[in-house]
UniProtKB/TrEMBL annotation:
<protein>
    <recommendedName>
        <fullName>F-box domain-containing protein</fullName>
    </recommendedName>
</protein>
<dbReference type="InterPro" id="IPR001810">
    <property type="entry name" value="F-box_dom"/>
</dbReference>
<feature type="domain" description="F-box">
    <location>
        <begin position="1"/>
        <end position="56"/>
    </location>
</feature>
<dbReference type="Pfam" id="PF00646">
    <property type="entry name" value="F-box"/>
</dbReference>
Length: 538
């Protein structure tokens, strides 16, 4: 250790820069005065502002009722840090107040939830006993936390802010009811926090990260009136804030639909989310943005469609996409259009759509997308014949069906195919991205697709997404690099007929004859990927 600490500070500084675990940096500070001097700047470069909940008054418990109010209790649920320590925002305040530490802070991670971002909803739980352990569905912070948040502009060298929300999206209203009672951040809560951040006077940052954002168009008259009341000053403040960004990192979450009301893809908020997302976030940042990371907990690009053709980032150096679906050549063209500046490209669990099965009633438009109108897209296979007959009895060979009804069922489905393969895409990248130095294609180990549905019904839950980990993606040929879209089951899949309840189980050969196998081109894809990696600039 004496040999290490005798090194020049420049070398020590370089060595310590490779230590990324906060606990390891803390231990290094205790080794020697020399290491403490070097390590301190790295330790305080990124500082978390963890959630510090407001005390909950008159908290109900099992024995409490309206006739015995004296049994009510008051608690202040604690947020436990990753080191299993109860957090108090006074720790952040002490950094704000210390001139020596204040100037070391370059990034703040603002948590409006617990560190694992997984406040597992307990639908209709009523008592919410989990809040005693810090999993409080009450989205209110203590005054000390709000004071620290408002003082962020006082950090002299602050350049980056990460706004971190819970991973469970709020829900729309069904039958005039909202199922947000057990969601930490319901519809609109995230945008409220963002407005507060954008409005902080004097806050000038270059890098913004929003983990588990939810973009929702107003659905009710009340919501529309609220947005219309938003002042021009607030809108200008938002656009001014975004226009100065050099880096935007975002993961998008969506509402988990209640199974009896439809699937998350068709009945959820994802269609409107990706309609308004480019206007709200991409266009204001376009001129100065150098780094863009965009992930979603649903496959996006085709359905829901993300339209990027009228957006260009003239300074873009790094692009990372998570669960992006390529269905049209223009999407590859769009990436290549940044050839003059693009140095890094990360494709995490991204797929090519090789086939679409859909209702011949709804069909696709001339570009090969479902119609823009949400109603026509959402009812593509569940209207008329499908809703009344096929949905509950999908076996056309049933003796109860008339011959004319059978023929209508057989003719109700059609297929569309997309011929581009990953080796085509890799070849184009090799030829058309001359400045590319880093490329990753695979599926991050941080994806967690086996999650529970918040409503505990038969529908699967939405996945947990990676965060700040694209540089660790291993280049590989993962299975889901080719997907089909099944519009009657309303889901993406690798093999036709996946899942216990797929209607494919009941279909005859006139349907299955049109279903293609996933492309069998792993060898070609792998060779093209290797050639692309070997040709990268150093």
């Amino acid at each position: 250790m004496a040999e290490l600490t005798s090194l020049p500070n420049e070398l020590l500084d370089r060595i310590v820069s490779y230590v990324h675990v906060k606990a390891d940096l803390a231990n290094l500070r205790l080794v020697s005065p020399a290491l403490k001097a070097v390590t301190t700047s790295f330790y305080f470069a990124t500082v978390p502002l963890y959630a510090h909940w407001r005390a909950i008054e008159n908290y109900d418990h099992d024995d409490h009722d309206d006739e015995h109010e004296e049994d009510a209790v008051e608690i202040a649920p604690h947020m436990r840090t990753p080191n299993n320590v109860n957090y108090n925002a006074d720790a952040f305040k002490s950094i704000l107040d210390c001139e020596a530490l204040n100037k070391l802070v370059k990034k703040v991670d603002v948590y409006t939830c617990n560190p694992d971002c997984d406040n597992v909803p307990t639908w209709y739980s009523g008592l919410r006993d989990h809040s005693i352990d810090g999993y409080s569905p009450n989205d209110e912070m203590a005054d000390i936390w709000r004071d620290c948040f408002n003082r962020l502009p006082e950090l002299q060298n602050l350049r980056s802010v990460a706004l971190i929300f819970d991973r469970h999206g709020g829900t729309s209203r069904y039958d005039n009811l909202s199922y947000d009672e057990d969601i930490l951040h319901g519809i609109g809560a995230r945008s409220n926090w963002q407005t507060l951040l954008f409005g902080l006077i004097g806050l000038k940052i270059e890098n913004l990260s929003v983990r588990h954002n939810q973009e929702c168009a107003p659905e009710s008259d009340e919501d529309r009136k609220r947005i219309n009341r938003e002042s021009d000053e607030v809108r200008a403040s938002r656009n001014r804030f975004l226009s100065g960004l050099h880096s935007l990192r975002m993961s998008l979450v969506h509402e988990q639909s209640l199974g009896e009301n439809g699937t998350t893809l068709k009945e959820g908020d994802c269609l409107t989310c990706f309609q308004i997302f480019p206007t709200n976030w991409l266009k204001p940042t376009a001129q100065n943005l150098k780094h863009l990371t965009l992930y979603a907990d649903l496959p996006f690009g085709f359905f829901p469609k993300l339209e990027l053709r009228d957006i260009h980032f003239p300074q873009l150096r790094t692009l990372a996409l998570g669960q992006y679906v390529i269905s049209h050549d223009w999407q590859v063209d769009w990436i290549i259009s940044h050839h003059a500046t693009l140095y890094e490209l990360y494709l995490d669990h991204c797929s090519i759509l090789f086939q679409i099965g859909h209702s011949s009633k709804a069909g696709l438009n001339e570009e090969g997308y479902f119609h823009d109108d949400k109603k026509s897209a959402c009812t593509s296979t569940h209207d008329g014949l499908w809703q009344e007959s096929v949905w509950y009895s999908l076996d056309p060979t049933d003796d109860g069906w008339s011959q004319s009804t059978k023929e209508e069922i057989y003719n109700a489905v059609t297929f569309a195919s997309f011929g581009t393969r990953w080796h085509d895409v890799f070849d184009r990248f090799s030829r058309s991205l001359p400045r590319l130095r880093t490329f990753r294609f695979g599926s991050s180990d941080q994806w967690k697709f086996d999650t529970d549905n918040r409503f505990e019904d038969s529908e699967p839950g939405l996945p947990i997404m990676p965060w700040e980990s694209e540089s660790y993606i291993k280049n590989e040929m993962f299975e889901a690099r080719y997907l089909h879209y099944n519009d009657w089951d309303e889901e993406y899949g690798v093999e036709w007929g996946e899942g216990e309840d797929s209607v494919i189980d009941f279909e005859d050969k006139r349907w299955t004859a049109g279903m293609e196998e996933p492309p069998a081109c792993e060898e070609e894809d792998e060779k093209a990927l290797i050639a692309l990696l070997r040709g990268l600039k150093t």
